[in-house]
Amino acid sequence: MIDIKPDFKTLKPYSVVKQDVWHYNSKVKIKIDWNEEFLVNKKVEENLIDFIRSSKYALYPDVSSIDLNIALSKYHNINHNNIMTFNGSDEALDVICRSYIEKNNIVVFRNPEYGNFITFAETSLAKIEYFYDKDPFVLDENSFKMHIEKFKPRLVYISNPNNPTGVLYNFSFLKDMIVSNPNSLFIIDEAYIDFIEKTGYGESIDEMIHFSTKVNNVIVVRTFSKLYSLAGLRIGYIVTNNEIINDLSLLRKGKNVSMLSQIAAKTAIESKDFYNEKLEIIREQKKNVINKCSNLSYVDNCYDSSANFICLRINDKVFNRLKTYLYDNGVYIRDRSSIYQLDNIIRVSIIDDMSLFIHYMDEFEKLIKNI
Fold it and tell me: What is the rounded distance in angstroms from the CA atom of residue 351 to the CA atom of residue 177?
């Protein structure tokens, strides 16, 4: 048997949720565990069908994604040379780590953080220096900034809004940290930025994108998996300066971005009105869920967020029982309690119709009252 690299033997793979939605005997009724969205754009479907009927899938894809890049450049009002597409934003994060992290380079995260990126950093053999706030749902900006200045990391990763807490970092704060630490590369993962309200962030949700093209130590990462409902097609992109684009081109595999993904993403980014309407539906559903859950006896805390999910801290006496009850009834939520500081926390994705989730949360309330 050929052994894996010695440095990899102690690493642990990224922990994924149940994927039996793909199985013929799946019991799922409402999937609200991975922050996908299911209200789809029919125009995307039509354009994908047209492409399949053209038989052009026999050709290799456009490795430069030029049509999509131009559409994105118009959408963000930036030069298309500052954009690079990937087979999902996770691939972009992996390529960034493999391009810039050497063994024992320091990488800083604020706990909790997106687990997949932590895995990429660990497999690049980084030394991770976590920052812990007293309350993971409240950001202590000054302490976090001091933590970065103390360790002078090679790389800082920030999901904004944060996954899994939904905490939003203000643009001015991020900009100040980036400027103050010119020798650290900042990865700002904006997978959920489309869902934020402008209040508390800045003038525009594209401020970091525009800023990233003017400095040499920040990469903005975005995805089509959340608001745009294209998770299964795997399409994401980065925005940064030309020097970093050139660096990453050494490891990027252009053929990984399929034409189906490029066509779907281009159609989506050109359908602004549809997604604005979708956002309003999701925001209204989130309000309904928060109002309901805040009044349930077994929910100790209901944490609003700037993303398309909320976190609920469930009473310890019924935590496992609630998880089992929801799963047995086809309600798939995400258990985050294994993460430090997230004891008894479940994360609930907000989709266009949350009535089934609310129904079973109500039914569970009746169940435990009758015991």
Answer: 34
Token output for 3: 């052994």
Q: Please tell me the distance from the alpha carbon of residue 272 to that of residue 97, in angstroms, as a whole number.
A: 32
Q: pLDDT digits over 155-188, tens only?
A: 999 999 999 999 999 999 999 999 999 999 999 9
Q: Are 264 and 235 in contact (CB under 8 A)?
A: yes
pLDDT of residue 17: 67
Burial class of 1 by CB neighbour count within 10 A (0 to 12, 13 to 18, 19+) = exposed
pLDDT at 198: 65
Instruction: Kindly report whether the peptide bond that precedes residue 161 is cis, defined as omega within 30 degrees of 0.
Output: yes
Amino acid identity at 15: S
Q: List residues bridging with 335 in a β-sheet.
A: 346
pLDDT value at position 168?
Answer: 96
User: What is 6-39+273-369's CATH superfamily?
Assistant: Aspartate Aminotransferase, domain 1 (3.90.1150.10)
Starting at the edge strand found earlier in the chain, the sheet holding 185-189 runs 83-86, 236-239, 218-223, 185-189, 155-159, 106-111, 127-132
The residue ranges of the chain whose pLDDT is under 50 are none
pLDDT value, residue 56: 95
* pLDDT of res. 182: 98
Q: Where are the domains of the chain?
A: 6-39+273-369, 42-271
Q: What CATH number is given for 42-271 in this structure?
A: 3.40.640.10
Query: Which pLDDT belongs to residue 5?
Result: 80
Tokens of 361: 């949360």
